Amino acid sequence: MDPMNRPATTPEVSAWRAETPGSDRLVHLNNAGAALVPHQVADAVDAHLRLERELGGYEAADARREEIAAAHASVARVLGAPAASIAMVQNATLGFAHALQAFDFRPGDRILTSRADYVSNQIMYLSLGRRCGVEIVRAPDGPAGGTDPDAVRSLISRQRPTLVALTWVPTNSGLVQPVEAIGELCRAAEVPYLVDACQAAGQLPVDVTRLGCDYLTGTARKFLRGPRGVGFLYVSERALAAGAHPLLVDMRGATWSDPDDFTLVPDALRFESWEISHALVLGLGAAADYALKVGIETATHRARALAAYARARLSSVPGVRVLDRGPELCAIVTADLGVPADAVKTTLRARGINTSSAEREDAVIDMDEKGTASVLRISPHYYNTAEEIDIAVAAVGEAVTGNQETVNGER
To answer: What is the mean pLDDT of the chain?
Structure first.
């Protein structure tokens, strides 16, 4: 799709950019890492920090109790969930770990996952294998790429996993996994389902009812355009009703009711920690409100169009191999440059162009299958422009040529 044929008009793009400090001096194409925050988000964080300075940290939190509850509700609206199902966490990986802690894993229990799950999730699965004897089962991909739902159906039937866990959008690829189809399989088989939506929230519509998931994690800093250092965890009503809680619940999530007993709070707050940055929580709430004002569908269509344009432009650069594959692609573009991607990323950053890079250890299975040791990642969002894509791709071509000459000893 031509990114100029977009649902958003030029005045809307201009308004988004005017509300985004930094967009006038940077080409920021690292939204899958950390997006530029709109000033409304920065203002929310700054206002609470000022209040803490004037009142004290505990007193400021008490004074903003209603606003903090409203932040939970705003995130819930992004997910199509009730506010009581939302826990604020220090980061998405911690939220994912808290969800895993809700299970009393025993030797022989199985976690069914994908070949492309996020690196930290893969490491946690393997750690559970070492400590608890959990078996890790990775579903195969379909012919077009992405986890094969038919294979998942067969594995659920034959191996009866304790948990199905899936990363919706892998960090090193534009692939969008079939999370809704797999959710249907989990519901039918009554198998708990955990979704990592870290790269999805803010760039794709999220509806936890349609997903059928028991847990879903996400972060503020990526496509939601919130501050770094805070994330969220959705916990379904059925999981809460069953008494689910993290192994190491603290006084935020429970009360010490008797010398040898505790009582859980009734909602997802049992998955929160007592100590968290309320300034960042309020920033996440402001980011969720801003995303809803822009419109998730608007963000999706525009970001995807820009990513498709970037793939087409990168494909024309000599020596560059675009690696994204799958029946559905999103606003993450990855390419093998034939030279170390980290060096190119650094060269681009010096020119005011922000991208990202990933190495083999970030996605061992996927990288090995694609025959590459590093990739450059370009992740546009709705406030970016086609002209910025052109600037970045031209700079990539120059950087690749320069690095090739260096490697070949030509300078």
So the answer is: 94
Residue 233: phi and psi, rounded to 5, are -135, 125
Quick: pLDDT tens for 147-169.
999 999 999 999 999 999 999 99
CATH number of the domain bearing residue 135 = 3.40.640.10
Task: Tell me how far apart the alpha carbons of residues 124 and 134 are, in angstroms, rounded to a whole number.
Answer: 11
Whether residue 398 sits in one domain with residue 306: yes
Residues 252 and 301 occupy one common structural domain: no
One-letter amino acid for residue 59 of the chain = E
Residue 395's φ and ψ, nearest 5 degrees, are: -70, -35
Range of the domain at 274: 41-293
Chain position carrying tokens 């192994």? 247
Euclidean distance between CA atoms 182 and 200, whole angstroms: 16
- Give a yes or no: residue 334 inside a domain: yes
Residue in the structure block whose two tokens are 């009142």: 55
Range list of H helices, 133-207? 149-159, 179-189
On whether the CB atoms of residues 97 and 121 are closer than 8 A, the answer is: no
Residue 119 in tokens = 């690196």
Is there a domain that residue 410 lies in? no
Q: What is the CATH number of the domain that holds 306?
A: 3.90.1150.10
**Burial (0-12, 13-18, 19+ Cβ within 10 Å), 229:** middle
Q: Are 295 and 77 in contact (CB under 8 A)?
A: no
